[in-house]
Design a protein that fits this description.
The protein has about 200 residues and is α/β, with parallel strands linked by helices. The chain is built from 9 helices and 5 strands.
Length: about 200
């Protein structure tokens, strides 16, 4: 993205794309904060990521872009480049209130920047299923959006294993293969693939 912003020669993709267990990925970096700052001053900033990813579209069946929860210029770039968005929601009151704002933003991006942008569905994450608040808010999401936006059946539970796996720089599946969150993410991947197919 920096090469695109600064109009310099694009670096060899092999420097950035890594492969593990048959999956290519580009890991995040602290330098994204520099990119974010530069994008704020750039003309056509919201389209930079789409331009960077365009040559890669033919190489992959699917490209996933994981964004931070804040609605910063990098998130807008991801939405401008995407065909669909999976809205992850932590069933807590403030997160639920932020979802309405996010949906409005998706609508604006679809109207002004990326007409092909659709919503794949809502994925509930960090679910504390034993708490009453989680159950109430999960029901509220289901009632509010049923029939309008797909609510994925899979719920990602809140587990300490996710935090521990991040600390040890491992995927949750590598760190703890039997962790409930890892099992749920695998289940969600199957649900998403069956939805796409």
């Amino acid at each position: 993205m920096m090469a695109k912003i600064e109009d310099t020669k694009k670096p060899d993709m092999k420097r950035y794309i890594r492969t593990k267990d048959g999956v290519d990925f580009i890991s995040s970096s602290i330098y994204l904060s520099v990119v974010d700052a530069k994008l704020r001053l750039e003309m056509g900033a919201e389209k930079i990521l789409a331009e960077v990813l365009e040559p890669l579209r033919e190489r992959y069946d699917c490209i996933l872009i994981d964004t931070c929860p804040a609605l910063v210029i990098l998130t807008i770039n991801a939405l401008a480049a995407a065909d669909e968005v999976i809205i992850t929601v932590n069933p807590q009151l403030l997160a639920m209130m932020g979802m309405q704002d996010f949906l409005r933003t998706v609508g604006k991006i679809k109207k002004r920047i990326n007409p092909k942008l659709g919503i794949a569905g809502i994925l509930l994450t960090m679910c504390e299923t034993r708490t009453k608040l989680c159950r109430v808010l999960t029901e509220q999401v289901t009632e509010s959006f049923q029939g309008q936006i797909r609510i994925f059946e899979t719920r990602i539970p809140n587990t300490v294993k996710v935090g521990e796996s991040l600390y040890y720089s491992k995927t949750v599946v590598e760190y703890s293969p039997k962790a409930s969150a890892g099992i749920a993410y695998r289940k969600f991947a199957k649900e998403l693939v069956s939805y796409e197919g």
